[in-house]
Amino acid sequence: MTSSTQHHHQPGGPREGRRHTPKVDMSGLYQRAFKEAFFKLDPRVMVKNPVMFVVWVGTIITVLLTFNPGLFGPVPDNPVLFNGLIAIILFLTIVFANFAEAVAEGRGKAQADALRSTKSETTARKILADGSTEEVYSTSLSRGDRIKVIAGDVIPADGEVLDGVASVDESAITGESAPVLKEAGSDVASSVTGGTKIISDELTLQVTADPGKGFIDRMIALVEGAERSKTPNEIALTVLLAVLTLVFLIVIATLPTPAAYIDSPVSVAILIALLVALIPTTIGGLLSAIGIAGMDRVAQFNVVATSGRAVEACGDINTLVLDKTGTITLGNRLAEEFIPLNGHSPDKVASVALAASIFDTTPEGKSIVRLAQQQGASLAFDQRTAEAVDFSARTRMSGTNLPDGGEIRKGAVDAIRGFVRSRGGHVPEGLDHAFEKVSRLGGTPLALCQNDDIYGVIYLKDIIKPGIHERFDQLRRMGVRTVMLTGDNRITAEVIAREAGVDDFVAEATPEDKIQVIQAEQAEGKLVAMTGDGTNDAPALAQANVGVAMNSGTQAAKEAANMVDLDSDPTKLIDLVTIGKQLLITRGALTTFSIANDIAKYFAIIPAMFAAAGIGALNIMGLNSPQSAVLSALIYNALIIPALIPLALKGVKFRPLTANQLLQRNMLIFGLGGVIAPFIAIKLIDLIVGSVGLA
Amino acid sequence: MIQDITTSIRTTVVLWLLTALIYPLLILVIGQGIFPAQANGSLIVNDQGQVIGSTLIGQAFSSEEYFWSRPSAVDYSIGEAAAPTGLSGATNLAPSNPDLLALTEERAEILQAANIAPTADLLYSSGSGLDPHISPASAIAQIDRIAAVRNLSLDDLQTLITQNTEGRFLGIFGEPAVNTVTLNLSLDQR
Amino acid sequence: MAQGFFQLAIALAILLVVAPFLGKYMARVFMGQRTVLDPVASPLERLLFSTGGFSNQPSMTGGQYIRAILVSNLVMGILVFLIFMLQGVLPLNPTGLDAPNWDLALHTAISFVTNTNQQHYSGETTYTYFSQAGALGFLMFTSAATGIAVAIAFIRGLTGNALGNFYVDLTLSITRILLPISIVGAIALVIAGVPETFAGPAVAQTLEGATQYIARGPVAHFEIIKELGENGGGFFGINSAHPYENPNNFTNLLTNIIMLVIPAGLILTYGIMAGKPRQGWFIFGMVFVFYAALIAIAAVGEFQGNPLVNGILGEQAPNLEGKEVRFGWALTALWAVSTTGTMCGAVNGMHDSLMPPGGFATLSDMFLQIVWGGQGTGTAYLFVFLILTVFLTGLMVGRTPEFLSRKIEKREIVLASIILLAHPIAILIPGAITLAFPETLAGISNPGFHGISQVIYEYASAAANNGSGFEGLGDDTLWWNLSASFSLLVGRYIPIVALIYLADSMAQKQPVPETAGTLYTDSVLFTGVTAGTILILGALTFLPVLALGPIAEGFAIAKAAAGG
After folding, report:
1. CA distance A406 to A452
2. A57-104 tens-digit pLDDT
3. For a disulfide at C64, which of A622, C60, C240, C331, Cβ 3.0-4.6 Å?
4. Nearest CB to C210: which of B8, B30, B78?
């Protein structure tokens, strides 16, 4: 295990402070990438990239032409030097493109190594059929095996807690230093991740992934680029680039006979030079680097994606379905005030509230206890003799059964209303008023009763995360609709929705509502993303186009999702949308740039090529000589690849603008810029080539 | 597939009857019935009932007493070379073709020898090879010669040219054009 | 010069007035709405549908639609080929013409069935009246109607509707659009002087006493559908320069506008059928700008004339080589750009004799294929470019590209790419082969750079289904007939098959709702980017041959004029 730098961050707080944990070692990256660039010259590797393969073949031919200039017809002036220079430049073009890919892969590998270090070879105690344990290597574990882990162990594989309670240090993958409690049967806390460390007690686990199939393994494969299958958009783009290459191949292959017809024969080396200058080598050379870098960016965000497709889909999301709690509001609602009803005294209400919440371990419950104690309340019975009544989604209330048979409940106002009526009580007039008052403040009203008597309303205050409103505004400008799901009543939900700036909300939502909301949106052709952590979120996570499970969530949720957020921070979905878009934008921008470049290259090479045809007037750049023009265009073509590597790796900066504004901006930079830049650059290179006397 | 073939054949037959039989016959009947002069080619017939040309089709004029027409690549479909079908055609010489330059030089010399200042339409050959028209400028350039040969006043010739000039359509479209066939015919008829 | 450009401006203004009318009308026809022709056309259509055997047939799938196009076109082509080969014994043969060579007959049949009408012959000396009216005239309707049907099916698919039934659309195109306009137009042409007779050539004693053979025939009915259906195959060898095909500036204006209205109108038809009239107008505007620019290029070149000949004239005069006096430089340039832009291919002046800017403009028209574009297919090609643009721009705004709320994915890009490839394959490859054997194969009549233009023009004309030519080329040879047939077939059917599959796959996609993140395609920005994409893709593919052909020729003439 590597030493992990630990960062504390507020969920939803500023992202700038976030760094990837575990620590990634980038030293020696460029040297390794440079070496790797040469290994990638293997034709079996090159052929996978049709654009660069054409350059590769062109290099071979020009090398031959350097040693035997008369091999294929017409010979240029000074053939050995000229053809040799072309061969060298073409070779460098390929090396640069390979280097770009190798750098991206190298960064991914470094990321992967860091991840991998968390799951170095360990031993595991496998529980055999007879109940005894056996020491085995963790790599021999397979799905379904049962293992025992005790304090001090590194957990050898992803698993589900079957038995026991223990605290686990997950800082290796989340960077969160506080240990997490794991126990069986609990929604959130029953799954453990391989590579984390158990620091107290012991657990019995069922292994949920075969060796090498855990989601850390999948992520490693993805960031390394090893198992990166091309995404649909990338495939479509590759097809387009291959066709453009084919078009140019036809254009160039059909040039010699018309040229010969007008007694202006062209040498094969120049034809190859023109071909390479025209085919989209810039994007062809950087395409896979862009894809790998995109996965890498996801990994840096501490999100595990199961496929590149999922990352790309993030950019297409039309609707985000978000849970209110933890995403829009700070996770925990806190008791703010007790509102007495039915003429009960404030003190009495506080003590009933205390009694109702004494078994409630949720932060809300604890805050009620705290508030009640502040107001001087204390328990009037022995806690050990009382019985806890747990919250359930069906009853929507919880509470305490007293030793004397009294039933104290707190819960949703209408649930309590029903409870009281069923006990023959009646509902006080002030209840609705108190309910409305709390709701209008954006708080959650909880009614409080003992047997058939309603004592009052507890005001649970919700705190909307700072800055969330602005983020939703950005999303809206990007065309992403946000839908908030909350168990709150309509009035509360409406107030919070308005304050947070979401587009829509579903109040009093059950987990089943999630899937309905998603299906309804999808029926309109929308792509939906959601986050979830509970087992009952699993169907919705699977249904959503992008489902992000919290690492703190259950194994079922994680398996249904196509991404897992190691930090368990639901607001990250918003960042993922940006990453997905950035990935597409980078590809589109560099493709546009690459094609726009061709105009200048034509104006450099065509007049040079057909100097004998008297079209010298087309040499609008006033390039030195025909040979210098060809070399300058090619040198530009080669150098632009390394020049754009940083952009390919970082991605084009995404701004939350409307599509039209984005297009305008990117067209100006990459379209118009792509037309103009090479004119200037080729002219400058030509001046240099001329002054050093190469041609 | 069989279905496609039978539907295709049946469709071909009905559409053939409609577009290749009924439609041409309809236009033929209307043309021959209501506008026979135009439908038969706007032919000019002399007093003896002999066809002497068409108002739309140019003729070769190279003798002194006629206004010359434009150079034609097919010699105005005249002579045995054109029999029996009639011809149309152009030189199709490219602007860069030395032959074009040689031809225009040759024509310019002929025109200059005849004391006619060369004009573009008399140097360049026509598209159809049957162009009945020359530009008013080309007609004016020949007016002195005709006046001398035919012993006519310049004013009379000027009037004849004007009478045989087709203006722009709606005063906008095309170029004013002097019909050499009708102009020369009216010279003969004086 | 001002007068000339004034004519051009007014002609374009007329187009702007007429095209929307036809566009709206065509939309009504194909959306099954009521039109004024219903009382006459509906009973006729019922008769045709039932006789043809396709009444009540359901909408076709992409595969069925393609099969129907291919089979019906094949049947029609065979019929026409047989008529040619038997014309010697068929009626209406006043000059006693025999059957042409098989390869010429084959090329002619393919050329007309593909709506190209490339002619390696002169009408008056090769084909009988029966062949012209009964075979070529027939294909002029059906090939144009096939194009319209493809465009309509494409628009339907693009907008998520069923493609429709090919035979129904084929018939409707004829009964509702082509035939009614043809009848009215043909009568107008007869009145204006275009002959319509089965009588043989007139033999005249000319004023100078020579014998003149005046070819005639059933021209008027043929002439109008020739222009309306973007066919372009002249009744006479010299096409619309012939005084019987195009006797005056009324017929010239009428036929020039007529050849533009359907492709121009169809763009607006799309806008209406897709419920996006604004976008229809944006695309229309973009094409209009291309069109006007190319006219300007060609017109200025013709107006400035041939500097070499101007040297003889002693002044600057328009280039009138191969032109008719009545049309002059401006209307010949207008026609040349219109006919190559719309894939009509009729000519009212000789393109071989156009100045290099005219050669550049006409070649560019055919390379791009969208400056109005062919009957129906041109509109569809426009959308191929729109789809490619959407793909690039969609990526640039960070979304999976979508067009008309449908995602553009691999399949669509593959199909669009096939269309993109058709031209280089059908033009550049045979062009290069032919130029490799200039003595034996090429039949080039003009020396130097212009020879390259002649060869490339012929294949471009075939591949774009245009039909015009640099007619000096000696093209009635086995090589030219067969190799041009290859380009004709590749240029016609590969794109049609790809277009229909593209429409089919778009139709089956689940539409995506529009949001602020959707890239609106009806904006100046997007239209401008589309124009840039079209120009760059076109230029990148064809700039080398343009440089070696008209551009080099232009420089050569300028140099010769300056030096001599």
Report:
1. 10
2. 999 999 999 998 877 777 777 888 999 999 999 999 999 999 998 888
3. C60
4. B78
